[in-house]
Design a protein that fits this description.
There is one protein chain. The protein is mainly alpha-helical. The chain is built from three helices and no strands. The chain starts with a helix and ends in a 16-residue tail after the last helix. The model has no long low-confidence stretch (mean pLDDT about 85).
Length: about 100
């Protein structure tokens, strides 16, 4: 085995070890709860944005699509405004961590 192959194997091993350490840090901290929430939200929004044009086309066309986009934006805005009022419920019920 050449010296270059040895260096390459060492760098892959080092990369794998550092990646394992990084995942360990993330998943054994409070950050994992936020990461899970972000993944779920992005997945749901991505699905709705992918399906919305086809759904609105079946239900009435461009006008319905515009209405559904406006309704989705309004819901996001209302949720953002109400989130400050729900400060007393900061702890997530599904979270094993307490703040």
């Amino acid at each position: 085995m050449s010296q270059q192959e040895t260096k390459l194997r060492y760098s892959f091993k080092q990369y794998r070890d550092e990646l394992k350490e990084g995942f360990s840090i993330v998943f054994h901290s409070l950050l994992s709860v936020f990461l899970l929430g972000a993944v779920v939200c992005n997945f749901a929004i991505g699905i709705s944005m992918a399906v919305l044009p086809s759904y609105s086309n079946d239900k009435g066309g461009v006008e319905i699509y515009g209405f559904l986009l406006a309704a989705q934006s309004t819901g996001v805005l209302i949720g953002a405004l109400l989130s400050s009022k729900l400060e007393q419920f900061r702890e997530c019920l599904l979270s094993p961590y307490t703040v």
